[in-house]
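Amino acid chain
________________
===
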Amino acid sequence: MSLFRIFSFSKLDSFHGGDMAMRLPFPSTHRRIPTLPSLASFTPRRRNVAMASAKRSPKRLKYSTPRFTKEGEFVSIEVDPSGADSWKLEPVIELLKQGAVGVIPTDTVYAIVCDCKNHSAVERLRRIKKIESSKPLSILCRSLRDIDTYTMGFPRGDGHGHANVFRAVKHCLPGPYTFILTASKELPKQCVGYGTTSVKYASRKNVGVRISDDAVCQAILQSMDAPLICTSVKGPKENEWMIDPTIIGDIYGPEGLDFLVDGGVRVAEPSTIVDMTGPYPKVIREGKGPILPWMVVEEEDESSLRQDLIASGT
């Protein structure tokens, strides 16, 4: 008997609506030839991917950072000023790494901070504090190594009138001082003052640097991968600082802050600012840090850059 059962085409049509491709029973030894997908179906997708990647320049890829998406409410964490319960800071550290902007205590006054490498976070900080993009900001560093990385460093004596004050500076830090130094290429230009509003044509400028002698502040910094941009939490009046974290939260929370670390009420003593970019260390604001013999005090400096650093410094 034949292995195949013979049907008429008319019967095939009645069973399958005229489908001439009806599968007939084949012997077990028959191998089906797999049907390959059409190559044309893949071509447009490849072309679209190539076009999408061509639009993104290497520079944009290098500096692109994820934008912080606020999913919850304003976060307020109360900690011991001694840092004994620094484990409570873990949520704040994660928020900072994601691009959040918040308030933390320092050894002087409270500061609004964000990750210096997150461009969208720096933009938000400027909007919250109402600081123009041409104005300089300060950075909170973890150690002297950070200062050497993100600035051109302290004068070590070069035979051109610059004194070697590095050894003297090491005895001041950590401490209530802000030192003005020339920023290096590692620090995004967005964090310093420009001579022009265009970042593309901006020249390298100066930046204030701090190493805070505060246990809570240091606990946060030691868990970060880069310094924090910082600006003091000032009141509505000139030379007035907010020192009560409850009031800070009530005023700046609605402005867009993501978190606040409550380290208790502080004393309204900002840092002493010393300009290290000239031929000698020049005090431009006396604050909590005492004036040392190697620092020079002159008449009040009215230059716009100095005034901007005084206004934003902690």
